[in-house]
Write a structure and sequence with these properties.
The chain is an alpha/beta fold. The protein contains 8 helices and 16 strands.
Length: 258
Amino acid sequence: MFKIITKEHFSENVVKLEVEAPRIAKSRRPGHFVIVIDSAKGERIPLTIADADVERGTITLVVQAIGDSTRAICSMEPGEELHDVVGPLGRATQIRQGGTVVCCGGGVGVAPLLPIIKAMKAAGCRVISVLAARTKDLIILEDEVRANSDEVIIMTDDGSYGCKGLVTDGVESVICREQVDEVVTIGPAVMMKFVSLLTAKYNVPTIASLNTIMVDGTGMCGACRVTVGGKTRFVCIDGPEFDAHQVDFDEMIMRLRQ
């Protein structure tokens, strides 16, 4: 069993859980995810590890309540135990050594982006983070991102916080003023699609994390099939990160609607 140590509400439907999992905390790297099962009859839920504390033996997960199983996980309180947490799974992020990196996250996509931001900063990169959401209340982990970034740009659809506009507006403002060596984008598929189209126009290498399409998380169900560079890939075992300019986002978006 994996005990929940702390719980924090970001919004009505999004919570941050610190979970006791010492072996995972010790071996996890940026980009890795875990499979979480709330009870003996629960579904397998893939969740990217947002943070880890080796000394405390804990990992941090951000969960959005969108179905029965995720609602069950979000309703759990400190002291209660998850039935299973399996991982770390997936391929770790390839961290640049130096240069300028723009890390852009939309909504709960900021959670899996945070460990990448930390690792890029620790590797000597200049890190500019662009956080985007529909409104101010949906911006998460801002303090943690600021603590590990050289600059943070906030974009909200309604202009309630930061600058009014889309994540692409924030990314393009940086590309137009200085040399950007790489962009990392995590969030809704449609957001990543337009970030990819933008950076392709400026010939900026871009990495996208496609974790939103995962279901089983072990390559057995085939639900996370995506086309990358004209070839079929499985997000859970071949990714979750890919060259964004090679991803068929239209196909991915169509499959997500199913």
